[in-house]
Each structure stands twice: as C-alpha cells, then as structure tokens.
Design a protein that fits this description.
Blueprint (H helix, E strand, L loop, with lengths): L4 E9 L12 E9 L2 E5 L10 H9 L5 H19 L11 E2 L1 E3 L17 E5 L4 H9 L6 E5 L6 H9 L3 H5 L1 E5 L6 H11 L3 E3 L12 E4 L13 E3 L6 H13 L6 E2 L16 H5 L4 E2 L2
Parallel strand pairs: 4-12, 5-6, 6-7, 7-8, 8-9, 9-10, 10-11
Antiparallel strand pairs: 1-2, 1-13, 2-3
Helix pairs in contact: 3-4
Length: 287
C-alpha cells in the first residue's frame, strides 16, 4: 500500500467463554492506523476466521482479506472526518442496543436492569436445558435473542424449544445461527417452531431461511442486501464497537434495536473519537 500502515496489538479478555465454540478467554486483535484514520481488526479463528497474522500479512502483500477491507473502510471514514475536524457522532441518535449476556453467567438476570433495555441476547450452547431454564427467568417485559453460534443439531434445537413455555416462545425476537446455515433446513425449522432465525455466519448472498441478517461492520465492508439488518459489534476493541454504533445510526432499513453495546459519548471528538487514548498507545510499522 502507498501509505504506511501502523498497528497496535491488543488482547481482549473474557471472564467466561464468549461463545459456544470458543474455549479461550483471551482473543488477539489489532488496531490499524492508516491514512490518518483508525480501524479495528479482531478475527475469531474459533468461528472460522483466518488468524490475525494472516490478515495482517494480507495487508503487506497488498491482497487484503474481506475483514481487512472492512477495517480499511473504517480507517477511511475516520480519516476523512478527522482531517475535516468533524465529530462523526454529532447530531446522530445512537439506536438502542440489546444487553448481551455471556454463556451461563454466574448470576441470573435480575429486575434491576437499565430502564432503556428492551432486549437481552443470550449466548447459548448445546446444553439446551440450561439455556432454556436461564431464559425462562428473564423478566417478562424483556424480548429475548439467543445466539447458538451454529453449535446445535436440529434435534437439539427442537429439544430446546420443547422446554420453553408459550410465553417465553412468544418473547423470542430471533434465534441467531442455531446450526450451520442451509436455507432448506433453516426454512423448515423456522416454520416448524414459528421462531425467527437470524443469520450471522453464512454466505454474503444468502437471502432465504431467515428473518434478520446480522451485520458486523468490522467483518464485512458492505451492508448485506438482505433486510432487515441487525448491526452488532464483533466483541472487539471499543473503537470497533464505536464504529458499529456509528453504522447503526446511519443505516436505513435496519431493525430498531441493535447489538452495539454501551456508548460512551464522553469519548467523542474528531472522527470516531478516543483521540487521547489512541495517541497514547504504542504503534509499530507493519512489515
């Protein structure tokens, strides 16, 4: 690439397994500084992504992966705003976000949750009886989303739904990636259970078998053609989460509640913000 690329490596630490297919509580990522802007690169090899070094080397070889292209798009948007002294969040309304609950937390979701929370997303696995018990105890006024990260078989999914009360089934907003995507199978089990499916890890051109498409702006550079879309962060660095929040605020034809987490407007500034924090990090040239 013509302009110099600099990186800051970081690790994200999780108190409990972040999803059904990831046993490690430590995930490697890198912030990218390019052309005066910043982006976030945090792949999940346990979910099928190439590892971090592979993505970084694709930059060196000038043959960027899809995830690198998404990161560089973030850098470009951020750089343009920083150069012009523009706060990307000025006058934007950040949509509401669901509350994400890790895989089997140590405590139940209590009644003392923030008043603005209308949806809770639970990370599930193939211990479906435990997952069912947990979500049955979510406060009755809350809508439920469950992400299985393709860890179930269709039979396990049916066992899961059979454990749920009718009230709980009616409160399920969608089931994300119950099992690996096959549009025939997804359509069959969505129709059989009456539950909406949401596709995250699947072909970019997939169009049937689900009601909602998940879009992570730090993974794919282009908004999927399928609508409606739920925009989420990649459980990555705060900069990546802020970029997801920005995209959720400017994207049309999307659902009203996304998965971008808590937004700290005190860190706003030029571009995506966090300028003082980013300036204090150690950066190295990518070679």
């Amino acid at each position: 690439m013509k302009d110099k690329v600099q990186i800051h490596r970081y690790t994200t630490h999780f108190e409990s397994p972040p999803n059904a297919l990831t046993t490690s509580g430590i995930i490697e990522g890198a912030l990218i500084r390019f052309g005066g802007g910043y982006g976030c690169l945090q792949p999940w090899p346990s979910l099928g992504d190439k590892d971090l070094n592979c993505h970084l080397q694709s930059i060196v070889k000038n043959d960027p992966t899809e995830q690198v292209l998404a990161c560089l798009k973030c850098c470009e948007i951020d750089a343009n705003a920083r150069t012009k002294g523009i706060d990307l969040f000025h006058n934007l309304i950040i949509p509401r976000s669901h509350l994400s609950v890790s895989l089997f937390p140590t405590r139940e979701v209590g009644n003392k949750i923030r008043e603005d929370i209308t949806h809770i997303k639970v990370k599930g696995n193939n211990e479906v009886l435990k997952v069912a018990h947990y979500i049955e105890n979510i406060p009755k006024e809350i809508s439920i989303r469950v992400d299985f990260n393709s860890s179930l078989s269709p039979n396990e999914f049916i066992n899961f739904t059979s454990e749920l009360s009718q009230n709980c089934l009616h409160r399920i907003d969608f089931i994300e990636d119950p099992f690996p995507y096959d549009h025939h199978i997804w359509e069959q089990y969505s129709n059989q259970t009456g539950l909406n499916f949401a596709l995250d890890r699947g072909p970019k051109d997939a169009a049937i078998g689900f009601a909602v498409r998940i879009w992570k702006p730090t993974i794919y550079s282009q908004l999927p053609d399928t609508i409606p879309t739920c925009i989420t962060h990649n459980m990555d660095h705060e900069l990546g989460r802020r970029y997801a929040a920005y995209q959720s605020a400017i994207t049309e034809n999307a659902i009203s509640v996304h998965g971008t987490g808590i937004f700290d407007k005190s860190k706003n500034g030029h571009g995506l913000g966090m300028t003082e924090i980013l300036d204090e990090l150690e950066w190295e040239d990518l070679a």
